[in-house]
């Protein structure tokens, strides 16, 4: 459906991986070998947390309905700023129209959210899910995607205090309502969420056949495997990427995230746990 990338680590110019990697997210927008669609040209989004003591807590967003490969502003922006945590998403629209308010990532206060996948038969269950959103949050739903509704449903269920628990409750609600409407496998998706310091990502589908998701190995291990690759000097010791598809062809650099799993990145490093496992 789409492709996305999330980075957490030492401040980095996003262009280093968004544009310059062999299989960058922009390259994947043109040719996505592991995606449900080869081309993801229905708009894109870039969200980042500004770096520095006086920086605001809220992330900044740049959305465009142009294909990522055709947007000069994305090149200018990702080459000019530095950020310790950023999201990039290229979209293949599955029904909702191509408009800026439907481009990921989505933002609420200091939180960012993006999703690759879909709610099956979304028009059937859209109303039932939307009315469950807390009335105080509903005005912040600006687009028409299933992803944005799930984000605000998770906020309703306590995302700010328990991100994985709230997201899990939102997805279970999608499954329950979908099943009531006769949909056998309502949910499919990989999700990234952040509050500006921690990154939570998940891979789960009702059918157990989720879109692809990978995380990078730790930088010291990669340098040990590939001591002659000068490009690795651009990354700090804590740099980590979670991405829909590997950014290069070097064996061992990217590791597939298992089905029904969550990957958490924070100041303590990397950890993985089960997510909505049967």
Annotation keywords:
single chain, alpha+beta, Glutamine Phosphoribosylpyrophosphate, subunit 1, domain 1, seven-stranded antiparallel β-sheet, six-stranded antiparallel β-sheet, 7 helices, 23% helix, EgtC-like, Glutamine amidotransferase
Report on the structure:
- With 278 residues, the chain is an alpha+beta fold.
- It has one domain (2-118, 187-274): Glutamine Phosphoribosylpyrophosphate, subunit 1, domain 1 (4-Layer Sandwich).
- Helix content is 23%, strand content 29%.
- The chain is built from seven helices and 13 strands.
- The chain has helices at residues 15-18, 25-30, 72-80, 122-130, 146-156, 163-180, 219-225; strands spanning 2-12, 44-50, 60-64, 83-91, 106-108, 111-119, 187-194, 199-205, 214-216, 240-243, 254-256, 261-266, 269-274.
- The strands form two sheets. The chain has a seven-stranded antiparallel β-sheet. The protein has a six-stranded antiparallel β-sheet with strand order 5-6-7-8-12-13.
- Helix 4 (122-130) runs parallel beside helix 5, helix 4 (122-130) packs across helix 6 and helix 5 (146-156) crosses helix 6 (163-180).
- The chain is globular.
- The two termini are 25 Å apart.
Gap between N and C termini, in Å?
25 Å
CATH architect. name: 4-Layer Sandwich
Order of helices and strands: EHHEEHEEEHHHEEEHEEEE
Largest sheet: 7 strands, antiparallel
